Amino acid sequence: MELTDSDIEVAEARSKAQHARWPRAVKVRFNRHTRRVVISLSNGVEVSFSPKQAQGFETATDADLGEAEISPSGLAVFFPRLNADIYIPGLLQGSLGSELWGAAARRSA
């Protein structure tokens, strides 16, 4: 399938809409004392979560959580040592993993 100018325009419009709808990550850190990942957003809000609550983070070490990269769009934070990421819109909606993972986590709780 060949990419057309129209395809590019549609993708750019979607990107602008996504940026307007959600705040972006501007800083990420791991607080070793509370064992929480803290993400600062472009709207001034800070959001944090326990690694135990996120898919792919359950057995993460402090070193794993200490390395994080914000995506160019600011809509995701990637943890290279875990090969896992957190999608900011999902995080703000309370989702820290796939629906299947979430259902399994709820059943085991």
Strand content: 15-25%
Largest sheet: 3 strands, antiparallel
**Oligomerization:** single chain
Low-confidence stretches: none
Strand order in the largest sheet? 1-2-3
Helix content: 25-40%
Broad CATH class: Alpha Beta
H/I helix tally = 4
Structural class: alpha+beta
Give me the CATH fold name.
NE0471 N-terminal domain-like
CATH architecture tag: 2-Layer Sandwich
User: What would you call the shape?
Assistant: globular
> CATH superfamily assignment?
Uncharacterised protein PF10387, DUF2442
End-to-end Cα distance, whole Å, is 45 Å
Describe the structure.
The protein is α+β, with helices and mostly antiparallel strands and 109 residues long. It has one domain (22-108): Uncharacterised protein PF10387, DUF2442 (NE0471 N-terminal domain-like). Helices cover 34% and strands 25% of the residues. The strands form two sheets. It has a three-stranded antiparallel sheet. The longest helix has 17 residues, at 5-21. The termini are far apart.
